[in-house]
Design a protein that fits this description.
By secondary structure, the chain is an alpha/beta fold. It is built from nine helices and five strands. A five-stranded parallel beta sheet has the order 2-1-3-4-5, sandwiched between helices. The two termini are 37 Å apart.
């Protein structure tokens, strides 16, 4: 387990929090626990490599509502819920909201550690994808307005002749803008250009 992994625990039950802190802290993980979701939201760092452990049922803001708030903030941290046997309807809703996994009470330490390790791998993947999106997005910003138009048309599957007609420019000019756009984005083909534009969030 990498030392840079942060585990955020949110549970209104102090005994449950203390048990998780003791269990996971003994493994060398960096633990922060919170009794109140609002304090967690004010203090957590969404940019770290980590995992969230939320109790499903809490007074005030529930674990599910907390997950939905993280979704609104585009948080990349996977969420594992600590659930009771009677939480099936909430579990289904949480799955639909993007919860990574569920661990039933009483918590099995080895099972939880395995889920956390899997969730950290997902976190790493999300962070890498976000970095690619950010890098490509910066390159896309370097395109001129005309290069953007041509790139958008290529993404729509249009041929140079059609692009030239729609933009009122020559095919040679289209080829130049297309070449420049591909060069700036490091694309080796039209398909590669489309992949990079999609990675940057273009539709």
């Amino acid at each position: 387990m990498a030392a840079s992994a942060h585990i955020y625990i949110v549970d209104d039950d102090q005994a449950a929090r203390d048990g998780l802190v003791f269990m996971l802290g003994a493994l060398g993980l960096e633990i922060r626990s919170f009794a109140v979701p609002d304090i967690f939201l004010a203090e957590f760092d969404p940019d770290v490599r980590g995992v969230c452990l939320f109790d499903m049922r809490m007074p005030g803001m529930t674990g599910l509502e907390l997950l939905e708030e993280l979704n609104r903030r585009n948080c990349l941290l996977p969420v594992i819920f600590i659930t009771g046997h009677g939480d099936v309807p909430l579990t289904v809703r949480a799955m639909r909201a993007g919860a990574y996994d569920f661990v039933e009470k009483p918590v099995n330490g080895m099972e939880l550690l395995e889920r956390i390790n899997e969730a950290l791998r997902l976190c790493d993947k999300r962070r890498a994808e976000q970095q690619v999106k950010s890098d490509v997005g910066s390159l896309v910003e370097s395109l001129t307005p005309r290069e953007r138009q041509v790139a958008q048309a290529v993404m729509a599957g249009k041929q140079n002749k059609m692009i030239a007609h729609e933009l009122g420019i020559s095919m040679k000019t289209v080829e130049i803008h297309r070449h420049n756009a591909m060069e700036k984005l490091g694309a080796t083909s039209a398909a590669d250009l489309v992949r990079k534009l999609m990675a940057a969030g273009w539709q």
